[in-house]
Design brief:
CATH superfamily of the largest domain: Type I PLP-dependent aspartate aminotransferase-like (Major domain)
Low-confidence stretches: 1-42
Number of strands: 14
CATH topology of the largest domain: Aspartate Aminotransferase, domain 2
Shape: globular
CATH architecture of the largest domain: 3-Layer(aba) Sandwich
Number of helices: 16
Oligomer: single chain
Largest sheet: 7 strands, mixed
Distance between the termini: 33 Å
Strand content: 5-15%
Mean pLDDT: 91
Amino acid sequence: MALRYRTAGTTMASALRRATPQLKIASASARAFSASVQHRADSYVAGEPAGPSVKTQLPGPAVTAGLKDLERVFDTRSASTLVDYEKSIGNYLVDADGNVFLDMFAQIASIPLGYNNPELAKAVSTPEAIRAITSRPALGMFPSTEWGQELEGGILKAAPKGLNQVFTAMAGSDANETAYKAACIWRGTQDRGSRDFSDAEVESVMRNQSPGSPNYSIMSFTSAFHGRLFGTLSTTRSKAIHKMDVPAFDWPAAPFPALKYPLEENKAANEAEEQRCLDEVESLIDEWAKKRPVAAVVVEPVQSEGGDNHASNQFFQGLRDLTKKKNVLFIVDEVQTGVGATGKFWAHEHWNLTTPPDMVTFSKKAQAAGFYFGNPALRPDRAYRQFNTWMGDPVRAILFRAIYNEIERLGLVEHTAKLGDYIYSGLEKLAAKHPDAIKNLRGKGRGTFIAWDSPKRDEIMKATKARGINIGVSGESAIRLRPMLILQQHHADIFLREMEAILASQ
């Protein structure tokens, strides 16, 4: 491998000096996410391998031994492999045996700019990052003098249109959980009016009973995934294993549209299906108002863990209209879809909503977490109601700032939109040749957020890994792509070529 951004035995500073001059990038004059940005196959990372390379059986001996050793102190039953993150670079992941994989899954959609990106290494080696690491602040009580500038220059610079405030959190589940809290506090404050907490509320809330602990609910959708914490698990409905043995709130689930593909041939049926689901949402809100009033509806732009399920722009506008009509908050969970992967910085930008969501949650590719909001009423009426020790991590905010600046400088959102069209077109051709292996191809016009169903899903996943391609799966039969924003056409060609060879051999 020609280049390692981080090398054993070197300091961070020397590693940066070695790596940074060799990073090839698009013109620094390309500041906006616009079509004017010119991209080259070698625009981003020098030193990447020419392609994937698998030289051992999988798992190899080093991975097998390493996982066995790790199992003594850490549960490895969900581990896919054991990664050498020092050798991994750009779009390529290297395992403990030296096998090289083109990573089309990117740590469950969480790596935006590739492995060992030198610009991110620079960002976390600055004095402000070192201060945040060595003297980590409890942000709610002791924010740093730099915190406002860090937010304005990064997290809030990336904020969705109409949302100008943020509550920072630790992870995607935490982001959704705090958004749910904000929704319930907002609803309780509305119901209470201008009066103070009553004695009955104060006394009953300490016993987890009403009226202090009201029976509000958060509506989610069938097959949704919003996290694994106690509150978010009650809105997660993708797989039973996530929820088993964990107490849950009795909260409503609305049907998510089950679209038929190809979309062009099933327009009338899909419109009827989406209207059926919207009618059910309205009916459920009315029904549950009598027992557990719905404070908010939460939805993913694409139901990722639940099988990569899509819906139309009109469906989501219908949800926005219903929540406005019913005085219910609208939360868009962009933990997996956010930060450029769908060809827009935020996936809900595709919907062209007449009014913005009330809250948008984020994590994964942002390398930070939290929720955006615009309505001042979503700030609790008193201190400490939305609070914990850390309230996020300033180091993660610094990383998000660096990520946003690189995405903007390199025009990666527009690039991802175009590359996604290229990959989708290639998969359409493969689907025409192998209709039994590629079914319900979806994600057209949604960047690289592409998926399809296959009855041989698990066999295909194993075969792609054996050929050095790392892909993802979800739901019962879906294969999904979640590559990094720096993926190039020659990477896409490798993926499509290997996929064609696999399908031809089955």
